[in-house]
Amino acid sequence: MDLRAALTAHRLVAIVRGADPEAALRTVLTLADAGVALIEVSLTGQGALSVIERARKALGPDRPLGAGTVLTAHDAQAARRAGADFAVTPALGAGVTAARALGMPVLAGVMTPTEIVAARGQGATALKIFPAAQAGGPAYLKALRGPFPDELLVPVGGVDEAAARAHLAAGASAVGVGSPLIGDAADGGSQAALRERARAFLAAVREATA
After folding, report:
1. Is 40 a residue of the active site?
2. Alpha-carbon span 203 to 128, nearest angstrom
3. Bridge partners (DSSP) listed for residue 42
4. CA atoms within 13 A on the CB side of 84
5. Which residues 6+ apart lie within 8 Å of 64 measured at CB?
6. pTM of the model
7. So what's the pLDDT on residue 209?
8. How far apart are CA 113 and CA 161, in angstroms?
9. Does 142 participate in catalysis according to the annotation?
């Protein structure tokens, strides 16, 4: 898949991490049905590989589906076998290089300018500024835009609706959102409430992009 184009077009990545595989699968499918185009299933969730595999079958081959918290070569290989077509990492390392060797685009976790340069060397497709809230928020992201005007910067960590708008206004290419969007849906909570939150985040992204 063309992750650069997808991030630029959709500007929102939903991060699903749950203790209940059935609920996590329902969460992925609800998000997709609500119009969230980019969804990542974190490998730290219960039964995550099974969730990815079953979601891939349900969504078909053409819907983007990512694996998150890809730390090792084994993680990358298992995610690819399960049907993930892009990888997301919290940091640089073997997960990035192995995913790239498998032909998967990577949203690689970085925080500092030095790590951004290193991520380029590892072939990262886009850069996950993580944890965004602790890194300094929109002001820090805007500062990174100076020396790195062409990089795709995607803040993740503590990004609620207001922060999503602020980061996009500061120059973020997209935002990654976990618990402020997912809530308790992946642990068995309300899918109807998830659908409403998805609509709100999609509206926030559209408003920030307009």
Report:
1. yes
2. 22
3. 68
4. 32
5. 1, 3, 6, 37, 38, 39, 85, 86
6. 0.97
7. 79
8. 26
9. no
End-to-end CA distance of the chain: 26
- Walking along the chain (210 residues) 10 residues at a time, the average pLDDT comes out as 96 98 98 98 98 98 97 98 98 97 98 97 97 92 96 97 96 97 98 98 90
Active-site residue (options: 53, 128, 151, 161): 128
Length of the chain: 210
Paired tokens of 188 = 């068995």
Distances (CA, A) of 63 to 7, 36, 60, 183: 13, 10, 6, 23
If you search the block for the tokens 């951004």, which residue do you land on?
116
